[in-house]
């Protein structure tokens, strides 16, 4: 095979010492700039603290709405007779919804102390983890409570509808009045 004019390897120049000195002159300042800029970080703690507290506020509002909904369902449930079919299952489901709401309230009360601990430690990682765990735990509790309250509301609505549409027992016939001349035989 014959060599072609473009088969030589590319070189910056034939003086290798000049090339290595050039690399040193250029690379050292670039590395210093990268190191200095890498150490200079903005303080994310205040932003993360605000984000955690805003998350707590949003979940607190959602929890309060669900508690009001549960109270309304409890009043409707209390007005129903206790001898209905599936009353025990409905009551157990309602208690599970209340327990999920209570766990959520308890978790939300702990948030300010956890935020302060993360700020005192100066670790943004702790606040990031706190935000993630809040979303995960509280979303699961909200789904559980909402689902169970919806089931109870449906059960109560069906029972109320059946009770209102059930035919009432006919009134007993009045005894015949003998003065009118009619007799029952």
Structure description:
The protein has 185 residues and is mainly α. The chain has a domain at 45-162. Helix content is 73%, strand content 0%. It contains 4 helices and no strands. The protein has helices spanning 16-39, 45-78, 87-121, 124-165. The longest helix has 42 residues, at 124-165. The protein is elongated, with a radius of gyration of 38 Å. The model has no long low-confidence stretch (mean pLDDT 80).
Quick description:
With 185 residues, the chain is mostly helical. The protein has 4 helices and no strands. The protein has helices at 16-39, 45-78, 87-121, 124-165.
Helicity level: over 70%
Structural class: mainly alpha
Per DSSP E runs of 2 or more residues, the count of β-strands stands at 0
Mean pLDDT: 80
Order of helices and strands: HHHH
The total count of helices amounts to 4
Give a quick account of the main beta sheet: strands, pairing sense, barrel closure.
Answer: none
How much strand? Answer: under 5%
Distance between the termini: 131 Å
- Cα-atom radius of gyration: 38 Å
Shape: elongated
Q: Segments where pLDDT lies below 50 for 5+ residues?
A: none
